[in-house]
């Protein structure tokens, strides 16, 4: 259902080119011709932006659970809104070995923005993504996994609406196209509920970009 609902829309998750650029410009000592791996690229909006920003090589699509690359072969690994598929901690640990010494990892991850939040939104994300944590907790996980935190910032609300507006339009279109298909209607209801919850509770959670650099003990 996910792929049918998200078909033909520009993004499969929150993001915008301005935030991609902001994160990229924090990579102060990236090589002139970097070797870049974009994990979980989806329709490729951020991949195209990275291609515009670099004079390097962005690798081909593959399975994030079985990445066919040599150890220490990447200058930069990038993953917007997709590391949750493999898990934040597991992704950091497994992808680190693909980075060259002092190579960069940039990920955006769903993150609590406040210490306390309404029970409705807490229950929704505990049901849909139990891996959601605070930025402080994620920074600790990154440090323990062998990274230095270079910077972090929260995706602005505009990045959510760049995803949600076309998604909401597609939900409405699919309701007309499948007026009696129960499974589809249930999935559309859940998608619309997620959008409505963001309208109510955007102050409490968001996507946070973590700009990390591999650290190796001397």
Observed structural traits:
globular; alpha/beta; seven-stranded mixed β-sheet
Verbal overview:
- This protein has 218 residues and is of the alpha/beta class.
- 42% of the residues lie in helices and 22% in strands.
- The protein contains 8 helices and 7 strands; from the N terminus they run ααβαββαβαβαβααβ.
- Strands 1, 2, 3, 4, 5, 6 and 7 form a 7-stranded mixed beta sheet that branches.
- Helix 3 links the parallel strand 1 and strand 2.
Tell me the Rg in angstroms.
18 Å
Beta-strand content estimate: 15-25%
Order of helices and strands: HHEHEEHEHEHEHHE
Estimated helix fraction: 40-55%
Separation of the first and last Cα atoms: 49 Å
Class from secondary-structure proportions: alpha/beta
Q: Tell me the quaternary state.
A: single chain
What is the count of β-strands?
7
Topology:
Elements: H1 2-6, H2 17-24, E1 35-38, H3 45-53, E2 57-58, E3 74-80, H4 88-96, E4 99-112, H5 119-128, E5 133-134, H6 135-144, E6 147-154, H7 157-177, H8 182-201, E7 205-214
Parallel strand pairs: 1-2, 1-3, 3-4, 4-5
Antiparallel strand pairs: 4-7, 6-7
Helix pairs in contact: 2-3, 7-8
